[in-house]
Design brief:
- This protein has helices spanning about 1-30, 30-70.
- The chain is mainly α.
- The chain has a domain at about 1-70.
């Protein structure tokens, strides 16, 4: 008698467990659940791409500083930056009145 009761209880427990497991799987495959999961993954991917872009920009700025230091292109911060036209070779700071072609004093 106890043997039958044990196996009946074990079968009922297995049936409840299997039913719960199948119900959860069906809910996870519902369209609403899939849409939420896809949206979460898209947001996560966007954040990773943004972090990667920021890392690349920081690396580019660091490398640019290294190259400018290596080539001696660093400028004294007290001087205003030089403005150059494309292809123009600057040999020094222009004196007042020597602004070059097409340039006016402000």
């Amino acid at each position: 008698m106890f043997r039958r009761a044990f196996w009946f209880g074990a079968g009922a427990a297995a049936g409840v467990w299997a039913t719960t497991k199948v119900h959860r799987k069906i809910q996870s495959l519902a369209p609403e659940s899939l849409a939420l999961r896809a949206a979460d993954r898209a947001v996560d991917t966007g954040q990773r791409v943004r972090a990667f872009a920021l890392d690349v920009r920081a690396g580019m700025a660091q490398r640019e500083d290294e190259l400018q230091d290596a080539l001696g292109l660093t400028q004294d911060p007290s001087e205003p930056p030089l403005r150059r036209l494309p292809g123009e070779v600057v040999t020094g700071r222009p004196e007042r009145g020597e602004l070059g072609p097409g340039r006016r004093e402000r």
